[in-house]
Design brief:
alpha/beta; Rossmann fold; about 40% helix
Length: about 190
């Protein structure tokens, strides 16, 4: 298990890849919290706390959620929508990754080559990637870490994403719904109810 930590951004123009500083993917039942493998429950709580306390929490669902590849992807998409709607979380879909040069419309998409523009334009302080292909999320998350102070969360169907500040592996609809329950609980507790 990794004991190194990713430093919060902005990390500069050419931040080192997380793997270059020794961050590894978490084993099953664990997630990464700033580069350190911790039990999944702790990672979900940290994700919920970040989203509950964010000024502009935003979900970035990718094609693996948006395009309904399977019945499981449909359940994940329904869970993402339910959690976002139930917790006033903005959604910016990532349906197509191809670069749109010379002009990008940050209101409707995040471009993997310049995701920091979308973060800056929308003043996003916590973003969550879900259903984004690994090779695109790695690039986008590294650029976000390099140029912004946005906290990044990646919910991954496979082994997690070492470039995210917080990552959960083996994504499922129940994990997303649990995240939503924790967000509601933390919002309620912060109001003193």
């Amino acid at each position: 298990m990794s004991t190194l930590r990713l430093s919060p951004g902005p990390a500069g123009l050419l931040p080192p890849a997380a793997t270059a500083i020794g961050v590894t993917l978490p084993p099953s039942g664990y997630g990464n919290l700033h580069g350190t493998s911790v039990p999944e429950e702790e990672v979900l709580e940290s994700s919920a706390r970040a989203l509950a306390n964010a000024k502009v929490p935003t979900f970035f669902p990718g094609p693996m959620v948006l395009w309904e590849f399977s019945e499981e992807s449909r359940r994940v998409a329904d869970a993402v929508l339910s959690v976002a709607e139930g917790n006033n979380i903005k959604i910016i879909p990532m349906p197509d990754y191809r670069p749109k040069y010379p002009k990008i419309d940050p209101e409707t998409e995040i471009n993997p080559n310049h995701p920091n523009l979308t973060i800056w334009h929308n003043k996003i302080d916590v973003c969550l990637f879900v259903g984004v292909h690994c090779h695109y999320s790695n690039i986008a998350l590294k650029i976000i870490r390099g140029g912004t102070a946005c906290t990044t969360i990646a919910l991954c169907s496979y082994a997690g994403d070492e470039e995210a500040d917080i990552t959960v592996r083996d994504l499922s609809a129940p994990k997303i719904l649990e995240l939503g329950r924790l967000i509601k609980k933390m919002k309620t507790n912060s109001r003193g109810f």
